[in-house]
């Protein structure tokens, strides 16, 4: 890993692309990850420009936490040593248009860069963020950290602890009617095979049945959860054709930052919940795989899929059904937070696909 420095072209920063929630390249959700060594300071304006240039749903910026180092001593040594040995870091996330308070897949990607590209030796790394401290650990059976290129190409399986965003908050006005324009805009599909009528009118969309709409406002997340009716298939969920302009007209960015549309899987399916995520208010029409969405899905589905005293056990198996798609394991940990609040363990694979230098 090359350290940040100033050459003839100005500032040079290590930059990576990681596909999160997948074990193979070109699937899951890509995130850009930029390492900021001690002494490197980027304005928010420049970070936003970099995120727009990378044009992934999120670009993450990692920098060492002041005074932190492996073993609790003072930070020291070269930049590669810091990223290889420190446990605590600062982390911020930017979409192409704005900074966000939480991004799960870019957190997973950030830990993968530290482990795979930097050879970080810590059993877990801690990120200090606008959503509090997020800890990411290597799952059992993951390969040991290595800077060997062949080893770095192997996917790593990671688990991260996120805040639990139970969708129990009062619905904002645009979402109170499940048959209203906002919900209809993200649950409708054109009827397959229906041609234009003789009058030249376009085929009318068909809205999938909606069981209920929930809202998670905690920490400024502002996600709607749209739960489709029983019997809605994965194929129907995948066939939804969102009207992003209508979504933006139906709600402003202040009350709604994103919409999770989900359905319970049928018997015999390899997964238990299927979902999609739409965030046109954040400059991301559809996010391929959304870690923060599963911090909402977990609290909603755990009582239904893992009821107390029930026979089912272990993490819930979920699939985000975007064109790239991704697999996520989700488990709600009751009272596991330092303040006694619930946490959500979100686990998945990550594959490092690009390593380079950003020239500023």
UniProtKB/TrEMBL annotation:
GO terms for molecular function: isomerase activity. Gene3D superfamilies: Diaminopimelate Epimerase, Chain A, domain 1 (3.10.310.10). InterPro entries: Phenazine_PhzF-like. Keywords: Isomerase. Belongs to the PhzF family. It comes from the Eukaryota. GO terms for cellular component: cytoplasm. This is Uncharacterized protein.
């Amino acid at each position: 890993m090359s350290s940040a420095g100033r050459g003839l072209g100005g500032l040079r920063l290590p930059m990576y692309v990681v596909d999160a929630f997948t074990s193979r390249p070109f699937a899951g959700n890509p995130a850009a990850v930029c390492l900021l060594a001690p002494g490197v300071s980027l304005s928010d304006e420049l970070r936003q420009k970099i995120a727009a240039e990378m044009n992934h749903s999120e670009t993450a910026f990692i920098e060492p936490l002041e005074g932190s180092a492996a073993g609790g001593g003072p930070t020291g040594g070269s930049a590669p040593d810091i990223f290889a040995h420190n446990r605590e870091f600062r982390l911020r996330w930017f979409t192409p248009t704005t900074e966000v308070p939480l991004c799960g897949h870019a957190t997973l990607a950030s830990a993968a860069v530290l482990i795979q590209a930097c050879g970080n030796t810590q059993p877990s790394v801690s990120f200090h963020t606008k959503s509090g401290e997020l800890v990411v650990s290597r799952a059992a059976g993951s390969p040991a950290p290595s800077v060997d290129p062949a080893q770095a190409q192997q996917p790593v399986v990671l688990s991260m602890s996120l805040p639990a965003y139970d969708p129990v908050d009062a619905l904002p006005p645009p979402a109170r009617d499940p048959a209203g324009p906002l919900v209809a805009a993200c649950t409708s599909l054109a009827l397959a095979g229906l041609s234009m009528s003789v009058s030249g009118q376009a085929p009318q969309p068909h809205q999938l049945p909606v069981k209920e709409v929930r809202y998670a406002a905690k920490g400024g997340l502002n996600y709607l959860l749209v739960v489709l009716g029983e019997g809605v298939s994965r194929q129907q969920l995948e066939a939804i054709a969102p009207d992003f302009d209508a979504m933006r007209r139906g709600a402003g960015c202040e009350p709604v930052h994103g919409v999770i549309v989900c359905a319970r899987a049928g018997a015999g399916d390899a997964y238990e919940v299927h979902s999609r995520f739409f965030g046109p208010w954040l400059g991301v029409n559809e996010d391929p795989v959304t870690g923060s969405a599963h911090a909402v899905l977990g609290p909603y589905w755990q009582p239904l899929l893992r009821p107390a005293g029930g026979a089912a056990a272990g993490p819930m198996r979920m699939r985000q059904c975007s064109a790239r798609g991704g697999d996520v394991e989700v488990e709600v940990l009751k009272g596991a937070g330092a303040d006694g609040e619930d946490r959500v363990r979100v686990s998945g694979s990550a594959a490092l696909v690009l390593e380079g230098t950003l020239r500023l």
